[in-house]
C-alpha cells in the first residue's frame, strides 16, 4: 500500500511539473506576443502583421532623376511619362492574359513578350494550374538602370504594384494562399536596337511563330517559313518591352 502511495505521489509531482512547465511556457509566449504584436495570441498578431504588410507598397530603385537626363541626351524625343504609361499598360495586360489563360487581351507587344506569355499559359494548362491576378494597382514606376551594350540600349524600369493573387492546381487552392493583397515589384526591360549587326540580333532573336511554334530566326522576318503565318517583325530604332519579371531575392 505504501508503495502505491509513493507511486501516486511521484505521478502527481510529475504531472504537476509538466503542467507548470506548460503554463510557464504559455505565459512566456503570450508575453513575447504582446511585446511584438500587442496581443497575447501569436496567430492574431501574425495575421494582423500580414494584413498591415499587405497595405504597404514595396519601395523601388528610383534612379529616374539621375538617368532620365542621360537618356534624353541620347534620345531627344524621349518622353518619360508616355514611356512609363506604356510600360505599365503592357505589364497589366500581361497579368490579365495569364489570368484569362489566353492572349486576346494583349495589345501591341514584342514577339519576345508574346512568346514568353504563350509558353507560360501553355505550361499552366498542361499542369492544370489556374493563376488569377485581380484588383491590380500600380503604385510607382521608376527608371532603375540604363545600359548601352553593343548596338542596343536597355532601360530597366522597376514598378511597385499590388494585386490579389490566387493559384489553383486541378481546382485545388494552393496551400500558400493568402486572403490579403500581395505587395510586390516587377522589373521591365525596354530595348532599343540601334544597330542590328552590332547587337547580333539575327542569331539572338530566339522567338517562335505563335501559330506552329517554329523558330523566327531572322530580324525583320514577316512570315513564318513553315506555316506561312504573318508575324510582326522585330523593330529596330524603336523602344520595345523585351522582358519582365517579378523581383525576388534571387533576381533583383
Observed structural traits:
2 domains; 252 residues; alpha+beta; Nuclear Transport Factor 2, Chain: A; 7 helices; elongated; 7 strands
Output the CATH topology of the largest domain. Nuclear Transport Factor 2, Chain: A
Mean pLDDT: 78
Name the poorly predicted regions.
202-206
How far apart the termini lie comes to 74 Å
Report the top-level CATH class of the largest domain: Alpha Beta
Q: How much helix, percentage-wise, in residues?
A: 40-55%
How does the overall form come out from the CA principal axes?
elongated
- How many helices in DSSP terms? 7
Major β-sheet annotation: 5 strands, antiparallel
Helix and strand succession? HHHHHEEEEHHEEE
Structure classification: alpha+beta
- Write down the Rg: 28 Å
**Number of distinct beta strands:** 7
The total domain count is 2
Name of the CATH architecture of the largest domain: Roll
Q: What fraction of residues sit in β-strands?
A: 25-35%
Characterization of the model:
There is one protein chain. The chain has two domains: about 50 residues, no CATH class; about 140 residues, Nuclear Transport Factor 2, Chain: A (Roll). The chain is elongated. Helix 1 runs parallel beside helix 2. Strands 1, 2, 3, 4 and 7 form a five-stranded antiparallel sheet that branches. The chain is built from seven helices and seven strands, in the order αααααββββααβββ. The protein is α+β, with helices and mostly antiparallel strands and about 250 residues long. It starts with a helix and ends in a 6-residue tail after the last strand.
Amino acid at each position: 500500500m505504501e508503495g502505491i502511495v509513493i507511486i501516486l505521489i511521484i505521478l502527481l509531482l510529475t504531472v504537476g511539473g509538466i503542467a507548470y512547465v506548460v503554463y510557464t511556457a504559455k505565459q512566456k509566449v503570450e508575453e513575447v506576443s504582446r511585446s511584438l504584436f500587442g496581443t497575447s495570441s501569436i496567430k492574431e498578431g501574425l495575421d494582423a502583421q500580414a494584413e498591415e504588410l499587405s497595405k504597404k507598397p514595396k519601395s523601388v530603385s528610383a534612379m529616374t532623376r539621375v538617368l532620365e537626363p542621360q537618356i534624353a541626351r541620347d534620345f531627344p524625343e524621349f518622353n518619360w511619362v508616355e514611356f512609363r504609361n506604356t510600360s505599365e499598360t503592357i505589364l497589366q495586360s500581361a497579368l490579365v492574359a495569364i489570368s484569362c489563360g489566353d492572349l486576346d487581351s494583349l495589345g501591341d507587344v514584342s514577339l519576345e513578350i508574346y512568346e514568353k506569355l504563350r509558353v507560360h499559359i501553355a505550361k499552366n494548362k498542361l499542369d492544370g494550374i489556374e493563376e488569377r491576378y485581380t484588383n491590380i494597382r500600380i503604385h510607382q514606376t521608376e527608371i532603375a538602370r540604363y545600359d548601352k551594350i553593343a548596338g542596343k540600349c536597355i532601360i530597366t524600369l522597376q514598378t511597385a504594384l499590388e494585386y490579389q493573387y490566387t493559384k489553383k492546381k486541378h481546382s485545388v487552392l494552393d496551400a500558400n494562399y493568402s486572403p490579403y493583397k500581395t505587395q510586390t515589384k516587377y522589373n521591365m526591360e525596354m530595348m532599343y536596337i540601334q544597330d542590328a549587326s552590332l547587337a547580333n540580333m539575327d542569331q539572338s532573336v530566339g522567338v517562335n511563330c505563335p501559330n506552329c511554334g517554329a523558330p523566327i530566326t531572322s530580324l525583320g522576318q514577316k512570315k513564318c517559313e513553315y506555316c506561312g503565318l504573318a508575324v510582326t517583325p522585330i523593330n529596330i530604332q524603336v523602344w520595345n518591352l523585351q522582358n519582365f519579371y517579378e523581383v525576388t531575392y534571387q533576381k533583383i
